[in-house]
Write a structure and sequence with these properties.
alpha+beta, 26% strand
C-alpha cells in the first residue's frame, strides 16, 4: 500500500571515534607529504645552493647575472659586486642577482 513512500528504518548509534576516525586523515596527510617532497624541499635546496654561490663570489670570477649580463667581477662588496661587461664598462649589481659562476675562459670564447 505504501507504494511511493519508503519504509523508515532505525539507524544504529554512530560509533565512537576510534581507529575509523584516523582513516579520514590519511588523505590530507598524504597530500601534505607529497607537497613537501615535490615542491618545498627542492626549493629550499636550490635556495641553499644559491646562498652558497653568492657567499663564495670573489674578484676575477666570470659570472652571469639574472638579467643575462656576463662579465668578470672586478670588486666585491658586502651587498654589491662590480662586473666588467666590456673593456672599460663596469656595472654594479646586487650579489643576489648573480645567477651562475661560469668556467674560466668563457668570456674569451664569445
Amino acid at each position: 500500500m505504501n507504494f511511493f513512500i519508503n519504509d523508515a528504518w532505525a539507524e544504529a548509534a554512530p560509533a565512537a571515534a576510534g581507529p575509523g576516525g584516523l582513516t579520514g586523515l590519511i588523505f590530507p596527510i598524504g597530500l601534505i607529504l607529497i607537497l613537501y617532497f615535490f615542491m618545498i624541499r627542492p626549493q629550499v635546496k636550490r635556495q641553499k645552493e644559491h646562498r652558497a654561490l653568492v657567499e663564495s663570489l670573489k674578484k676575477g670570477d666570470e659570472v652571469q647575472t639574472m638579467g643575462g649580463l656576463m662579465g668578470k667581477i672586478t670588486d666585491v662588496g658586502e651587498n654589491f659586486v662590480k662586473v666588467e661587461i666590456a673593456d672599460g664598462v663596469e656595472v654594479t649589481v646586487r650579489r643576489s642577482a648573480v645567477e651562475a659562476v661560469m668556467p674560466k675562459g668563457t668570456l674569451k670564447e664569445m
